[in-house]
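SECTION: protein entry
WANTED: fold as tokens:
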Amino acid sequence: MTFHLSTSAEILQELGVRLREQRLAQSLTQRELAQMAGLSLGALRKLESDGQCSLETLVRVAQALGLLEALDDLFVLKRQSIAQMEQVDLVSRRQRAPRKKAS
């Protein structure tokens, strides 16, 4: 599944399914993974069933499953051309509003 044309609910559900598959591939029960991640069993069940969780819960589960590398490229700024790099550089520089002249 690609996320490009998916709704946020579909993306969340797919992430829950993928994490469940990772857990099963490692022969872990929900209870074992919840303990490893320092989460309640209910929080893990909710994550796997519909993807609903806090960002901290997602990170804890990914860490417990050894999947932190999968997060490395998440939201990394992709620069594709010199013009785009220059534009990002211009935007990232701190700019101040011009001072008002005293009348």
